[in-house]
Design goal:
Elements: E1 21-24, E2 27-30, E3 33-37, E4 42-44, E5 48-50, E6 54-57
Antiparallel strand pairs: 1-6, 2-3, 4-5
Length: about 90
């Protein structure tokens, strides 16, 4: 039935229409426990912390993921203790 959402705070940006690219934070809550959240910070080298919102195209068929761009050389952004390199 599509994406169901709850606006906790109304934004001031333009209305998302079919075909536009949107970026959202999400929380997956099961029985009152947050199982997954895009608000969870990721620690980068140099003690920099970022959150990772999800980006998608409004109206795209389910299962169509955004293209993820990876680079071989991250110029020191990730430490040796970080997660495995993506393919």
């Amino acid at each position: 039935d599509g994406l169901k959402y709850l606006d906790l705070a109304e934004g001031k940006g333009p209305v998302a229409v079919k075909g536009s690219i949107v970026e959202v934070h999400f929380d997956c809550v099961y029985r009152g426990i947050t199982a997954l959240s895009s608000r969870e910070s990721k620690l980068l080298a140099g003690n920099r912390i970022i959150a990772q919102p999800y980006q998608f195209q409004v109206g795209a068929p389910p299962g169509r993921e955004r293209k993820r761009e990876y680079v071989d050389k991250a110029n020191g952004l990730f430490s040796a203790q970080a997660a495995p390199k993506p393919p």
